[in-house]
Amino acid sequence: MKIGRKSMITRQWAGTATKTVTWRTSVVQGLLDITPGDAEEIFGDLRADRRRFVVADAELWACHGDQIALFLKRLGIEYGEPPLLLPGGESAKTRENADRVIAEMDDFGLGRFGGVIGWGGGVLHDVLGVAAGEYRRGIRGGITFVATTVLCAVDAAFALKCAVNGNWKNRVGLYSPMNSVCDPVFFRTLNDVDIRDGFAEIVKWALAGDGHLFDLIEEHGARVANEKFQRGDSATRSLLTRPIAVGMAELTSNPWEDETARPSYLGHNWSPVFEPSERHGQAVALDMLISAMIAWRKGFLSRADRDRIVRTIGTLGLKLWSPVLEDRELMRRALWDAALHRGGRQYVPLPYQEIGKVTFCELTETDVQRGCEDLYGYVAAEFSQS
Ligand SMILES: NC(=O)c1ccc[n+]([C@@H]2O[C@H](COP(=O)([O-])OP(=O)(O)OC[C@H]3O[C@@H](n4cnc5c(N)ncnc54)[C@H](O)[C@@H]3O)[C@@H](O)[C@H]2O)c1
């Protein structure tokens, strides 16, 4: 084949390979009481090799470390005691911390087929995922991540992607499949802000694909947030399991995000630039509020449904406004970057016709500005009435 005036490909080889990836996420009540016989389901085969590289969120360990250590001992898991403890919070989602995990994996003598157990929230999940995906070009033995925040349990834990922050939120990362598990017992020690942050992602899944979940949030969300998921009633259980069901359905049909029209981009169109001024969940909530306003303005959503979304987000204790929404240049850059990420188009999902359904749009700066103005008007009117 001629490829220029003087050049010619004389021989060429092509390779194609497929790999099936299987991952599980589970909700377990009483994880720390699990028997060694049942542990395999969650932590893999412990008979052949009991060595596990263990890493945990430092705050989680301060609250639950004694029980977790006893649990690991009861299962006969051999790990470097104490485990590697890393801080949580967005400022800890760094290349340096991923490198630290890699260095500790080396010191531990973790093989390519060795096992890993992580305990923590979305930040540790992502840092560990990057490290485990890079170490020896990817740990094959299996990673179990115990999601100890609401946000991680209903989102990060079962998403295959992991990233650390660079100049931009989540700029560097990879896909690092993990099995995960959550037990609401750990949510007891979360502070109110972390619980609210988690609820923002629950609202996202409701808007993205489960209208009934939204009804449940509307009716029970504030109570369940106050109780930190500690009551085992059916609404509490559903508020944890339904978002995972919607999320897993989306991810299993589009695991590598090759399809860029993703309903779960809801809440993630502008939010990356709202961080770190706003926390992740709060940033997602603000993003969804703008989307609801734009959807209403475009005639996609009734005023009643728009107001239900705004009210519900408010009753969860999430802010309805932030000064970050006044920075038009920042908002413009957010959509520009979203389009770079999504193959040249924005694919902004907007609620459509009813809560739980979306349509995808390309937005102008005027659409976005109007959305912010409408939100501001709503908030100002509410404030003047109260
Ligand atoms: N990979 C993905 O697909 C994905 C999806 C959603 C979110 N994320 C990422 O997740 C991060 C946010 O996750 P997060 O909200 O869990 O934050 P986080 O991991 O920082 O945890 C929040 C706080 O809770 C503490 N903590 C954790 N478990 C605790 C417990 N049981 N009791 C007391 N304190 C505890 C942590 O130390 C931290 O201070 C963001 O960086 C976001 O980008 C990733």
The string of secondary-structure elements, in order, is EHEHEHEHEHEEEHHHHHHHEEH
The low-confidence parts are: none
Cα Rg: 22 Å
Give a count of the beta strands, DSSP E runs of length 2 or more.
10
> Describe the biggest sheet?
6 strands, parallel
- The averaged pLDDT comes out at 96
Q: Strand-residue fraction?
A: 5-15%
Name the overall outline.
globular
Helix content: 40-55%
In brief:
The chain is α/β, with parallel strands linked by helices and 386 residues long. The protein is 47% helix and 12% strand.
How would you describe this structure to a colleague?
- This protein has 386 residues and is α/β, with parallel strands linked by helices.
- It is built from 13 helices and ten strands.
- The strands form three sheets. Strands 1-8-5-4-2-3 form a six-stranded parallel beta sheet.
- Helix 2 links the parallel strand 2 and strand 3 (84-86).
- Helix 6 (192-209) runs parallel beside helix 10 and helix 7 packs across helix 8 (234-253).
- The longest helix is centred in the C-terminal third of the chain and has 21 residues, at 365-385.
- The radius of gyration is 22 Å and the shape is globular.
- The mean pLDDT is 96.
- The chain binds nicotinamide-adenine-dinucleotide (NAD).
